[in-house]
Amino acid sequence: MSVETSTSVVAGARSRLGEPCVLLKLGEVVLKGRNRDMFERRLQSNIRAALSGMGVRHDVRQRHGVIAVFLPEGTSVETADAVARRVADVPGLVWVHRAWRVAKDPQAVVDAALALVEDRPEVESKAGFAVRSRRRDKRFPLRSNELDRLVGGAISETYSLPVDLSNPDLTVYIEVDRDEVFVFTDGIPGPGGLPVGMSGRALVLMSGGIDSPVAAYRMMRRGLRVDFLHFSGIPFTTSESIYKAYALVRALDRFQGRSRLWVVPFGKAQQSIKASGQDRLAVIAQRRLMLKTAEEVARRIRAGALVTGDSLGQVSSQTLENITAQDDAVRMPILRPLIGMDKTEIVAEARRIGTLEISELPDEDCCTLLAPRRAETRAKIEDLVRIERRLDAEDLAVQLAASIQEYKIETS
Ligand code: ATP
Ligand code: MG
């Protein structure tokens, strides 16, 4: 049967290859000096959390400057690949390599390298290759350049491949560590940045649009754990925007795990703003009320900052004057990671992180309830404060914050 054949092929290869594992390269974490231990521990626990739902036994180990995820002997190549893809979403990691872990013996390294190259398309096309070795353990009998030559010689002899050190199509990496040697080829890029949780907690104002999910991603990547707050026009709009916010949070959850989404029923408050008669200021007045409400929620969940998807000049509410008027509404810092990005760049990033498709679904955003014919691009803070006094905005924000509903994120 074909199943048996393929199992025996994998088993045959494995006896030459050692144990499958996933080798993880850290980004800025390595620059953190005395805090480095803390960073590494946080990263390890985030990796464990990311893998916990997969039902694969694994052992996360710190090595010198790298982290290795050991998998039980007999783990299939497909499972090891799935583990690699899963951890490639963990912020703090720059590269993820499916690797083989072999004994600290030059012959074992040669065998693993030969087996790794065997199935590569470059063997067929006779493309140039290179071997790059590193010794983290200097007691290993061969120096890096000796190991390069030994393994390179074996590969070019066995497969008649030309060595090309300046621009190789295929690179075999060899890393000699304290207890083992890792042998691997190219990897998948990770998100980079810092481990989630390292920088504290923030609350993202999450619309159903393209920008705010990208803003959330950017801040998670800088080590913030984020919770999400969505304002829905309910009862004057349908629930579509809530479903979108939910789907977006679910898509972003793979970068941090345990995400939480709260929804504010905002329609009635919007009606009161509209009734105040200040048509041109309505959008900024509403945005300030959103921020005040978010600040109240943030205090309760011990978040230290708010995050929005604002980008300078993108729409009328995002002029310098209007951004100033928004900052004035709260005492908490408002982080705007997209402030200097072009829409095309934001869209490209949304596509890459998998949120664009969801953001592009139609919905009835609560903001459309208020869209005036001409929005003020230079809102004056005194005018806004006057509207807010009439509305009793501070009290209203407290009430709104008390009316939030949590939507539990179910991860697949
Ligand atoms: P987005 O694509 O994120 O919706 P946008 O380009 O549509 O942004 P605005 O509608 O002006 O711009 O919103 C600016 C920011 O205000 C959003 O990025 C988001 O952080 C916040 N925001 C807007 N509407 C909502 C909402 N309904 N719920 C929560 N936050 C919102
Ligand atoms: Mg929007």
UniProtKB/TrEMBL annotation:
Q: What is its EC number?
A: 2.8.1.4
Similarity comment: family membership? Belongs to the ThiI family.
Catalytic reactions of this protein: [ThiI sulfur-carrier protein]-S-sulfanyl-L-cysteine + a uridine in tRNA + 2 reduced [2Fe-2S]-[ferredoxin] + ATP + H(+) = [ThiI sulfur-carrier protein]-L-cysteine + a 4-thiouridine in tRNA + 2 oxidized [2Fe-2S]-[ferredoxin] + AMP + diphosphate; [ThiS sulfur-carrier protein]-C-terminal Gly-Gly-AMP + S-sulfanyl-L-cysteinyl-[cysteine desulfurase] + AH2 = [ThiS sulfur-carrier protein]-C-terminal-Gly-aminoethanethioate + L-cysteinyl-[cysteine desulfurase] + A + AMP + 2 H(+)
Main location, first listed in the record:
cytoplasm
Q: Which PANTHER family match?
A: TRNA SULFURTRANSFERASE (PTHR43209)
Q: Name one GO cellular component term.
A: cytosol
| Binding sites annotated in the UniProt record for ATP | 205-206, 230-231, 287, 309, 318
Question: Which keywords, in A-to-Z order, does the entry hold?
Answer: ATP-binding, Cytoplasm, Nucleotide-binding, RNA-binding, Thiamine biosynthesis, Transferase, tRNA-binding
Q: Which residues form the THUMP domain?
A: 81-187
One GO term (biological process): thiamine diphosphate biosynthetic process
Q: Which NCBIfam families match?
A: tRNA uracil 4-sulfurtransferase ThiI
Name the lineage.
Bacteria, Bacillati, Actinomycetota, Actinomycetes, Streptosporangiales
Q: What is this protein called?
A: Probable tRNA sulfurtransferase
Under HAMAP family, the record lists: ThiI
| GO molecular function term, any single one | ATP binding
User: Which CDD domains is this protein grouped with?
Assistant: PPase_ThiI, THUMP_ThiI
Stored InterPro entries = Rossmann-like_a/b/a_fold, ThiI_AANH, ThiI_fer, ThiI_N, THUMP_dom, THUMP_ThiI, tRNA_STrfase, tRNA_sulfurtransferase_ThiI
Query: Which cellular compartments is it found in?
Result: Cytoplasm
